[in-house]
Amino acid sequence: MLENFDQLMEQAGDLHARGNLPAAVKIYANLMALQPDNDIVRFFDALAQFDLGHRAEAIGTLQKIVTRLPDIAKIRMDLGSMLEREHRHEEALAQFSAATRLNPDDPAAHIMVGHMLMQLGKPAQIAKAAKSYAKGLERVPGNPVARLALARALMLLGRWAEADTECARVLAQAPGHTGAMAMQSVICYELGRADEARAIMDFEKRLLSRDIADRRGQAEADRLNAALAEAVSTHPSIAYEPKDYSTKKGYHTGEIANEKSGPIHELLSWIRAEIDALIAECRATPSDAFAGNAPAAYRLNAWGVVMEDQGHQSSHIHRDAWLSGVYYIKVPDSVSEADPEHAGWIEFGTPHAYPKRKTTSDITLIRPRPGKAILFPSYFYHRTIPLRSTDTRICIAFDAIPV
Description:
By secondary structure, this protein is α+β, with helices and mostly antiparallel strands. It has 17 helices and ten strands. Strand 2 and strand 3 form a beta hairpin.
């Protein structure tokens, strides 16, 4: 029986690792029937159940296991990660903090403590977060995510020179790094290096406009946009204000870059061609950090957005990408040159809020037009000015992510 148990456990672990979670949980259920008190099997089953969407039950299971096995740091870390994904940051902090006490040499535990303290957001907690990040980086000095998290904490504390040092370390290791470039554009203003900041956020050189009508004619562009408006608005994955996205007062689809036919596929084929041409140009003449970081290969991510009245996106960057962009399908008449408030326009340059900041960044605004695509470095901060319209504004956004 024990030999069979071990074989089943190995089989379930293999299925779990390969992502076949339904098959894995069936075997876990059989194993728990054989050994009802085996918390290790329950632990792995809870991990699979969480990823299958049974989040509350999985968290409850791990909470019970932690009371019986309080001294296993890994269980604390996984429970903390589940709680973090449910935005239960104080509870997650308690688990990650316990993990640091159980295993003081685990850099991941210290880094996650930092992340949770940053989510809680009070000045004293941000100062503690900086110390936690520094503690983790003692053991993994080459971790750019942790180092940029430390830089952001230092920026929030107004410690600009120290933040500059941390960003410079990342850029020395990874020139053109998206997160570091975005942060440095803010830091340079604060340290009196405005010209350097403007060179990073070079709107004139790096904001590129492409119009599909220039290639296909206006009638063909109008046909495609009408089909795209219908495809995006009725896409099976579309959801209102989905969690973890910057879209407010609007709908957001899931991933659409893998469609094999139809208007979305047609548009993205054109976008891929434009990206390919830009990459070839950048690699031939790498004139700055953005061009020098042009990928040899990339995968395209894309998603649709349908904004209603007051719909907007808060300022953000696309951390995993090299190039980002947006193609406008439908734009209400109220989004006009005559509007002094630029409702529904896209703005580049405004970063996240830093309370200790004393300077402001240069910005530029672009009015959306149907059939127009805007391409830009993924480290460009950008946001949408809230729309004022009874009609919808529809677009497809996309990222070129190096592979």
